[in-house]
Write a structure and sequence with these properties.
Shape: globular
Number of helices: 9
Strand content: 15-25%
Number of domains: 1
Radius of gyration: 19 Å
Strand order of the largest sheet: 3-2-1-4-5-7-6
Distance between the termini: 34 Å
Bound molecules: S-adenosylmethionine
Number of strands: 7
CATH superfamily: Vaccinia Virus protein VP39
CATH class: Alpha Beta
Largest sheet: 7 strands, mixed
Helix content: 25-40%
C-alpha cells in the first residue's frame, strides 16, 4: 500500500471505507494465496481474529476459506465493523462472523484465544509495534499462528513513460509516499521507533518465526474495472489528486490521469495494470506455552 493511502488520521477511516473495499477487491487473488499459506501452517483453526479488519473483505474471505472457524473482526471504527457485519450477513456467514469495536492491541481480552491472528496492514498504524506484537501473542492459543502482512515493494500501475508528463512519475510518488508514511507514524499516539525486522520482532514476542514469504499480484494490462477503480483511488481521485510533494508538472499529469473524461486518463488508457507484492511473516506460539 502506498503511503498516500496512509495520510488519513484515525478518525478518517470510515470515510476511506469505499477505497479500502476497492483495494481489497483488487487484491483478492493475492489474499486468496496468502490464506492458503495460513492453511498450510494452521489447517483447521477454530477461532480467527482479523485485527484491524477494515471493511471486512478479508474477514469474509477468511470465513469462506475456513468453514468451521469463527472469525472475529476487530477494529476501532464502528462504521467499518457495520460494513463487515452486513457483508457477512449477505454472504450467509452471519453466524460465524463476529465484530468487536476495540482499540488495538488492547481489547482482545474477552474475544477468546485465537488459532490465527491476521494482522493485515494494521500493525504499522499502532504506535508501539513491539508491545502490540507481544500483546497479540498473548491472545494466541497454544500452537496458534500470527500472520503479519507488512512490507513488500511499492506497487506499479503504469509504464515508466505514459506519453504525458515527465517519465518516472511513480518513482517520484514513491518518494513522497515514504515521507508521508514517516509523518503518519510520527503522529501516532505513544509512537516508538522500531527497526522493522519483523522476524526478530515475532521472536521477541515469544513466537517461533515460521517463515517470511512475499506474494506477487500480477494483473497485466488491460486492467479490469475493479483494478482501474483502485488505481484511481491510489492517484487520489477521491480528493482531487495527489498534491503534496509533487511539482506542478506531475500534479498536472495526475489531474489528467484521474479525470474520467480525459482519453489519457486511468478510465480509458489501455496500459493500466496492477503489479504488487505483499510480504507475509508468520510466527507460531509454542504448543506448551
Ligand atoms: C489499512 S486498513 C487495513 C484493513 C484490512 N485489514 C485490509 O487489509 O483490508 C487499517 C485498519 O486498521 C484500523 N486501525 C487503525 N488503528 C487502529 C487501532 N489503534 N485499533 C484498532 N483498529 C485500528 C483502521 O480502522 C483500519 O480499518
Amino acid at each position: 500500500m502506498g503511503a498516500h493511502e496512509h495520510e488519513h488520521s484515525h478518525a478518517d477511516w470510515a470515510e476511506m471505507s469505499a477505497s479500502l473495499e476497492r483495494r481489497a477487491a483488487a487484491y483478492a487473488p493475492m489474499t486468496a494465496r496468502i490464506i492458503e499459506q495460513v492453511r498450510a501452517a494452521q489447517p483447521e483453526p477454530r477461532r480467527i481474529v482479523d485485527a484491524g479488519s477494515g471493511p471486512g473483505v478479508v474477514t469474509r474471505a477468511l470465513a469462506e476459506a475456513f468453514p468451521s472457524a469463527e472469525v472475529v473482526a476487530v477494529d476501532a471504527t464502528q462504521a467499518l465493523l457495520d460494513l463487515t457485519a452486513r457483508r457477512a450477513e449477505r454472504n450467509g456467514l452471519g453466524d460465524r462472523v463476529r465484530t468487536r469495536l476495540a482499540e488495538l492491541p488492547a481489547g482482545l481480552a474477552d474475544v477468546g484465544d485465537a488459532d490465527v491472528i491476521w494482522l493485515g496492514l494494521a500493525l504499522h498504524h499502532l504506535g508501539d509495534q513491539r508491545a502490540a506484537l507481544a500483546e497479540f501473542a498473548r491472545h494466541l492459543a497454544p500452537g496458534g499462528v500470527l500472520v503479519l502482512l507488512e512490507g513488500g515493494l511499492p506497487a506499479r500501475y503504469l509504464p515508466r513513460d505514459i506519453g504525458i508528463g515527465t517519465p518516472g512519475l511513480q518513482a517520484r510518488l514513491d518518494a513522497a509516499d515514504a515521507a508521508r508514511f514517516n509523518e503518519m507514524r510520527a503522529a501516532l499516539p505513544d509512537v516508538k521507533d522500531e527497526a522493522e525486522d519483523w522476524g526478530a520482532l515475532l521472536t521477541a514476542a515469544g513466537l517461533t518465526h515460521l517463515e517470511t514469504r512475499t506474494h506477487l499480484l500480477d494483473l497485466p494490462a488491460p486492467a479490469s474495472a475493479t483494478v482501474r477503480a483502485h488505481v484511481a483511488d491510489v492517484f487520489g481521485r477521491g480528493r482531487g489528486g495527489l498534491r503534496e510533494g509533487l511539482d506542478a508538472d506531475d500534479a498536472a499529469t495526475v489531474a489528467r490521469l484521474i479525470d474520467p473524461d480525459d482519453e489519457a486518463g486511468l478510465d480509458h488508457r489501455p496500459d493500466v495494470f496492477l503489479l504488487a507484492t505483499q510480504t507475509v511473516h508468520a510466527g507460531r506460539k509454542r504448543k506448551d506455552a
